[in-house]
Amino acid sequence: MTNGQDNLLPIANVGRIMKDGLPPQAKISKRAKETIQECATEFISFVTGEASERCRRERRKTVNGDDVCHAMRSLGLDHYADAMHRYLQRYREGEELAASLNSSSSAAAAAAAAGSRGGGAIQIDVRAELSIFRSGNNQGRPNN
Amino acid sequence: MAAAAVADEVTEAMEQVEGEREEADAVADEAAEVMEQAEGEREEAIDAVAGEAGEVMKEVVEGEREEANAMADEADEAMEPEGEREEEADAVADEATEPMEQVEGEGEDGDAAAQRPALPLGRVKRIIRVDRDIKKVTNEAALLIAAATELFVGSLAAGAHRAASRRGRRAVRAVHVRAAAREHRPTADFLLDCLPAAEEAAPARAAAAGPSRGGGRGEAKPLPRGTRRIDAFFQKTT
Q: Are B153 and A18 in contact (CB under 8 A)?
């Protein structure tokens, strides 16, 4: 993989997400996938830039979930912010539940810690959030 | 007198006939009752037999299930030490693979894959770290950004598909993505900076295709001052 490609999201994953959102008979050109791949990378930089700006103003060094939600709201991405707020709440509830379940024995707690470092003990279904998000049917409209 | 006697006999005969008819009706009713009773008894007998058969079947099935459960419990008890060993091995493997970042986000179980964001967190974190100002990012922040990016890609793809179907195309192309990016109001500003405009892309494509075609008839170059085209020589001057 080239160095330029290292700073882009994997095109296979991007293509899969696109296919999930489109009817089965729809076809997607390779150039369209590449364009959306670039857009997605730019979107990540856009949101994290705003979140880090908030951290800098508050003199903090670590960007957390609340910063991301706040950044989306301040950028006018209210629908994303609402979905992400729900996501964050459920994620934290899951983490607390996992912590309380695993606090009984030290060995289990160590295993849970290893699991949570790898990406969280309880994950949230993003596709469900995507369907909730789409049901609003506002994502393509002006947000003024 | 005789007429009166005849009339009496006739009425008696009529009464007798009616009495016989009533008796016949009563007999028919009794027969019907007997028939109904017999049918009821038959149905009860059938239900009872079916019920008994069902109960027997249930007992057999439950017995088998209990036996199977007992056997499964015994097997689980026998396997418990092995299971503990596997869990320890998994924990060690997790610790060993922790520094390695997942690139493609594949190779997971079906349920687990459905529960995770479709974008690999390792790559998302790497893109975040491109910005030098960002010192640290929590796991939940990276997870949120991955999920938001997934929503964004989904909505942009849906917008591109709408643009394609408006133009009567089945395939989504880069032009349609640009149209969707232009419509996606909050993000349009930064997206249009990173995407080349369709107007800019078209001449570039034409320039690239020009030399390869060679003999394509384009617009004629402007002539130097003071020269005339040869076809002007053949035009009539009146």
A: yes
